[in-house]
Amino acid sequence: MPKSNFLVVQLNIKGGASMLKLNGKQIVTQRFPNNETKVKDFEEYIEKKENILEFKYLTDADLVTLMFVKQRIDEAHVPCTLFVWYMPYSRMDRKIDGDLFTLKYTCDFINWLQFTKVVVMEPHSEKTIQMLDRVKPIYPVKDWVKAENLPENVQIVFPDKGAAARYANSGYKNVCIMEKRRDPKTGKIEDMHIKEGKVLPGAKCIIIDDLCSQGGTFAWAGSILKDAGATEVVLVVSHCEETIFKGTLLKENSPIDMVYTSTSIMNKEHPKIKYMDVDVASYVRM
């Protein structure tokens, strides 16, 4: 398998898919037979200065646990910043006929908890930023792939206009922007092509985006890039779901040579997946 050595940060962190950590220490929870959550007291974890509560979402029950933990912290009358690894319901970012506007309700719930600050890692869309109080979005991909450290034969590829807009101010020079057309009824991608830019002969391409599910879009983009002359194609996303194992992206004949991501949603091992470091305290202090 080709090695990709042009990313700035190396594999450094492992973690569970769902967790609450206060100031770097794991909050311990248990389940009663009827699935009620039992939270072990964590008084010794609470600091008089600003506290950092890390939240990783797995199920809706984690939101209830978040409420219990924040209420307990409030009893100590200390400030607390929430670090959200992946914003729950961030894809439900608009009101659709027949569906509830669940992102709005989730943001309302977090606002009700009244954190000093809410740091959201790669919030998917502006709606999350607009609806959360005292929010600061962060984009670790920009730190993993620093423009000033990229060799000349490396090209950045945005799979759609949304990704291009999200990382527009990152300083990347050799850029390709792709365009895709979806069936308006099924949402299935019917066509994809390079809209802006040109793949340099022998280029190594880095596809950058926020989230990977099964990865069909990225596999299609990778095929286009290699047909255009790229010698290597890697994918860098802040979030990756376990559904990636159901698609073709990790297959031996996949056009994607490596996937770089965080443990925000999963930490399942695979030779083609490398988990990147996220320095929570550093981002909170920014």
The overall pLDDT average reads 90
Oligomer: single chain
The main β sheet shows up as: 7 strands, mixed
The total number of structural domains is 2
Distance between the termini: 37 Å
In terms of DSSP E residues, the strand content is 25-35%
Question: Which class do the helix and strand fractions yield?
Answer: alpha/beta
CATH topology name of the largest domain = Rossmann fold
Biggest β-sheet: strands ordered side by side in the sheet: 11-10-9-12-13-14-15
Q: Given this structure, which CATH class of the largest domain is correct?
A: Alpha Beta
* Series of H and E elements: EEEEEHEHEHEHEHEEEHEEEH
Low-confidence regions: 1-18
Number of strands: 15
Please state the overall shape, judged from the principal axes of the Cα atoms.
Answer: elongated
Radius of gyration: 20 Å
CATH 2nd-level architecture of the largest domain? 3-Layer(aba) Sandwich
Count of individual helical segments: 7
> What percentage of residues falls in helices of 4 or more residues?
10-25%
Describe this structure in words.
The structure is a single chain. The chain is an alpha/beta fold and 286 residues long. The chain folds into two domains: 121 residues, Rossmann fold; 137 residues, 3-Layer(aba) Sandwich (Rossmann fold), CATH 3.40.50.2020. The chain is built from seven helices and 15 strands. The protein has a seven-stranded mixed beta sheet with strand order 11-10-9-12-13-14-15. The chain has a six-stranded mixed beta sheet with strand order 2-1-5-6-7-8. A hairpin with a 5-residue loop joins β3 and β4. The two termini are 37 Å apart. The N terminus is likely disordered.
